Amino acid sequence: MFSDFMSVDLTASLYLLSGVFFILAIRGLSSPETARIGNYLGMSGMLIAFIVTILNLEDNSLSNLILIVLGISIGGLIGTFLSKKVAMTDMPQMVAALNSMGGMSAVLVAWAAFLSPAAFGLEINGYIATASMVEMLLGIFVGAITFSGSVIAFLKLQGLMKSAPVILPLRHVISIGVFSIILICSYLILAGSQNDQLLFLIISILSLTLGLLLIIPIGGADMPVVIAVLNSYSGFAAAIIGFTLNNLALVITGALVGSSGAILSYIMCVAMNRSFFSVIMGGFGDEGTGGEQVKETRPVKIGSADDAAFILKNASSVIIVPGYGMAVARAQNSLKEMVDKLKEMGIKVTYAIHPVAGRMPGHMNVLLAEADVPYDDIYELTEINSDFAQADVAFVIGANDVTNPAAKSDPNSPIFGMPILEVENAKTVLFVKRSLGIGYAGIDNDLFYQENTMMLLDDAKKMSEDISASI
Amino acid sequence: MDISPLVYYGSIFVLAIFVGYYVVWSVTPALHTPLMSVTNAISAVIIVGAIIAMGTESSGASGTISKIVSFFALIFASINIFGGFLVTQRMLEMYKKKVKKDV
User: Fold this and answer.
1) Tens digit of pLDDT for each residue in B8-36?
2) pLDDT tens, A52-103?
3) How far is A439 from chain B (nearest CA, A)?
4) Do A60 and B87 touch (CB under 8 A)?
5) Among A22, A85, A261, A431, which is most exposed with the fewest C-beta within 10 angstroms?
6) Interval B81-103 mean pLDDT
7) What is the ipTM of this complex?
8) Is A387 a catalytic residue?
9) A222, A372, A401, A466: which one is catalytic?
């Protein structure tokens, strides 16, 4: 009934419009002031795409529309619930979970198109056109990897699975073997095999396996890159399906999301001085570093909350360096209270954030925003690094590897060459840490043994509260 | 002679990658987490594929399976859309509070 007044050109133009809205949604994120408008534009773009699709429905019987509304309601309720419920500290898991949904949708839509090609206009004389078939296979492949990879990332971030790398013997051989079988099956389908559906299923299952194999060897510290990469994949999966469906909104959005994820992965890799390839190959954090035992015998100065409060009170400028430990301890609010007390005393307090602090890009910024820290107080690595030399106190809370001077001085260190926050230049370094254990990268931090370092061994939240109390 | 759909959509894809490249570099690092959640949400525009598949007069066993499969795709994509946009909004609200305070 509706499809009469929806011409092909009008439909395509509206999909293009929703693509433009999505571009504006990302563009809005260039500053916190415009970001919210951008998000509303993104929602509008989605609404446009939805309405256009509904208006073009072939079968717009009431029962079918009810079914569509039902599906969206179920998903919408779950999505809304998750978005309200999730703690800001758990954002990396949330993004991983949403990524997996995106990957799964791509796989399922490719399957739907494969099972009823006529619905998508993919049939030529009763056969699926080769180009469409290739696109569907690619869509399944990328979508399935995104799904199972994101599920593993989610399990690792949520702590349901050990975050340390899981190294299977001959893992590269296994991965290449699985990939080869996928290629062979794809070839058979394209060559016109009669067992299309079975082969399609095998390809789906093997692609899921491959996603799993790719992510399990990657350790916790590399999660920011993994999340960004999977984000990128979910975009490309959408774009590929866009080619199958000849849909502008999907092609544009897929390209946007794909490049967004790729750029974020690039930024993360640069921030860790790792090549993209070495992250993807995995295994980081399991390399034993020699001489650790010797190092551990060196003396460490351990202080109490009272000592720390005394030092902070007498400082005139303090730089806070938050890290994943702050997220784990959910210490951002206690930290903010402590900082407020210091600020009341006229002490200048700023925050320094390393690009890979936490478990995903921008993780620390969100947590500090949650605790109401003004974003003018927060500086990026390159903006603030020279200020440490003038600072009285560097207060490191839950960060470790991103402050490790070995990255500059020890060519044998696995993190050598990584840009770090130069906290060692501050007059005093207060280092809040649960124990003297090694960081996620599995390496010792020379900072602990420096003359001007005082270790505050406690949970980040409890320590901030105790310091607040004694200021 | 008409241009083939592959080249047509391919051109748009390539140009969109360039647009994405420049737009994403303009995003402030402080908002990288909302960037990830909002890109999550918009990539779920794949929901149109699920709706198209749902809305076709299906026939035969594979038609029925196709409908069931796309119904699940619809659910997953909706989780992604609602979850992604709303959680982005929640994060951005936190940045908003500080704007007010500073002004």
Assistant:
1) 999 999 999 999 999 999 999 889 999 99
2) 999 988 777 888 889 999 999 999 999 999 999 998 888 999 999 999 999 9
3) 23
4) no
5) A85
6) 78
7) 0.92
8) no
9) A401
* The predicted structure's pLDDT at residue A104: 95
A374 interaction partners in chain B (CB closer than 8 Å): 98, 101-102
Contacts of B93 in chain A (CB under 8 A): 36
Helix residue ranges, H only, chain B: 5-25, 32-43, 47-54, 60-102
Does residue A94 sit at the B interface (CB-CB below 8 Å)?
yes
Mean pLDDT (chain A) is 86
Q: Are strands A127-128 and A123-124 parallel, antiparallel or unpaired?
A: antiparallel
Tell me the chain A residues in contact with residue B100 when contact means C-beta distances shorter than 8 Å: none
Distance CA A232, CA B36 (A): 9
State the sign of the Cα–Cα–Cα–Cα dihedral A339, A345, A346, A348.
negative
Give per-residue burial for A44-70: e unless 16+ CB within 10 Å, then b: bbbebbbebbbbbbeeeeeebeebbee
How far from chain centre, in Å, is Cα B2?
30
Q: Does B71 touch chain A (CB under 8 A)?
A: yes
Calculate helix-pair angle for A32-55, B60-102, nearest 10 degrees: 160
Q: Sort out which chain B residues have CB atoms less than 8 A from A43's CB and list them.
A: 85
Cα atoms found within 13 Å of the Cα of residue A25, Cβ hemisphere only = 32
Residue A209 contacts by C-beta under 8 Å, 6 or more apart in sequence? A148, A178
pLDDT digits (tens, 9 = 90+) for A434-451: 877 665 555 678 888 888
Residue B101 has pLDDT above 60, yes or no: no
Q: Does B16 touch chain A (CB under 8 A)?
A: yes
Question: How far apart are the C-alpha atoms of A82 and A103, rounded to whole Å?
Answer: 18
The string of pLDDT tens digits covering residues A153-194 is 999 888 888 777 777 778 788 889 999 999 999 999 888 766
> Is the CB of residue A93 less than 8 Å away from at least one CB of chain B?
no
pLDDT at A251: 94
